[in-house]
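step: validate -> pass
step: tokenize input -> pass
step: predict -> running
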Amino acid sequence: MSKNLINAMADLNEDVVLEEVKALKAQNVPALDIIASLQEGMSIVGKRFEEKEYFLSELIMSAEIFNEASKLIGGAADGEAASRYGTFVMGTIYDDIHDIGKNIVTTVMGSNGFNVIDLGVDVPTEKYIDAIKEYKPKVIGISCLLTTAFDNIKECIQTIEKEGLRKDLKILIGGGPVDEATCRYVGADHVCKNAQETVEYSKKYMGV
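step: predict -> pass
step: emit ->
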């Protein structure tokens, strides 16, 4: 791994990150090795966020820097080849079209080594079912910013169970009005209050 790249990523120094990626590419360092260094830097960003040294704005910035670096790498930087931790399916439940929180989570999860399947907003239960069957994720995320859509999450989770897809699947929920009481009501496994918590919970469950 490249210490310079890890440290630059951790310090959110975009110019150095991009220069280092270009230099490593010129040295024919494999794309996945460069990605691994970037992801190691992202892990440090996550720790600093948990320790309140960094805040949400830094978390978002780190994901943006990671994405810019990934564009320079190309090829194996995209999709499942760069995934270390498996697939994460995410969407905003039907009757809710808020996407900012969902977008932050999917971006940060992707830059931390997950293969992210973003289902978008106003996602019907059937779309979740199809995605679970196709991608076989161990963790999915349901975003919701409207209390009026809580029953929709509950219906979605109950249908996932009826389809026999819940056995090894953890269902995370998140969004402004979502709390532990909501989690119990809808039958989810965990409430994630921010993107980094989603990363840490998912890594832990997948035995990383």
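step: describe -> Residues 31-50 form the longest helix (20 residues).
step: cleanup -> pass
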